[in-house]
Amino acid sequence: MRADSSNLAQETAVPPQWRELNAFTYLDPRVAQRFDAGFGGSWGTDEVPNAAHRAPLAGCQIVVKDNIDVAGMPCTLGTPALRHHVATHDAVAISRLRAAGAEIVGKTNLHELAYGITSANAAFGPVRNPHDPRYFAGGSSGGTAAAIAAGLVRAGLGTDTGGSSRIPAALCGIVGFRPTLGRYPMAGVALISPMRDVIGPMGRSVRDVAVLDAVLAGVSPVGIEPIDLRTIRIGVPREHFQENLDSSVAQALERVVTRLRETGATLIDADLPNVAAVDAAVSFPVVLYETKAALETYLAGTGSNVTLAALYEQIASADVKEIIAQVIGGAIPEPVYREALTVHRPALRALYRNYFAEHRVDAVLLPTTPLPARPIEGSDRVVTLNGASVPTFATYIRNTDPASNAGIPGISLPAGRYSPPDGTAAPLPVAIELDGPADSDRRLLAIAAAVESALSP
Question: Model-level pTM?
Fold first, then answer.
């Protein structure tokens, strides 16, 4: 099945009532007729992890971001040069999902080459936010988030470099998880930065994500232990993470803080000193240097004879083409990259490690994004925040990027919705994030489940 136009959904078996979202690049025609807005399985309920006679994902329909190989399905990376590329083998992560009983039903649209945060893909068309299709879904894993938020599936996979699973989860009102770097196998994933990229499970609830995490990481049991929030200490940094927030996000964070205090959780007001500067010394120097080799390695394995130069020539999204031009042109000298890896990244990891130890906190609480979704039209470069034009990309990744570069786990949780004061849009989601120490993934998921429960109406 071809994947070569902005009207891709018209060429696949995507039901007409779902095409407006443009969440899919491919939907398996064998399941399209029975694929409905409800979820047919009971996965996510308490009894499934303890049901020894069933695989943990038995009967579960899963969607997969279109930069992860699924045998027999296109893997386009959302870019025209790979429009005819069909994966011949499953990524290792997909093999684990299948072994657990999951059914992979389709591939989801993304920001081209996973290099952006809106999923306004000029080749495949923009992914639209299920809460208001005039607004973007976030990215780069926007299609997965939109499909889950619209109720088309229970869960799916994205990837996360600097926020690409947590940002669309936040803007679409679902749960998005970034694991500790290296927790999941990455063979068969089109990387842009081996030192930053992870697969990001996404779902309707923390429990859904926790099952995916257990399967992908190969751990048991798949369920998570209940946590009493009265035993939990949570750090709440203000510097950097709470600066220049949209009023809806600031109000949501305050509601969450108030509710957590009501549950008996201990909240510690403590900053991560100089986190923005330390993060900046790691972030782009690493990803821009690593992308060239990472893409060349993936392309070499496709058997398509597509070179990086040929891929670049056909990039449709102007913002992505500008970035890949820097990548090919060697914008980051090797000494700068080596310094980022050997000096600044260890400093960032130490900053977080010392924060958790000094303040004896189990997690860090912050807004996932400084603002909710904005309209697709006119938001490629800048968006409006508190009456001023700010850069779209840098603004949305501001809070998610530091934990990414530190390699620690983070999870985005819905924290309510807000209605724009001019009444022009439907209520749009806002979200909070919890970050935990390296390798605390299962405990962080358990804490997130407790917070999720505390915030539920």
Answer: 0.94
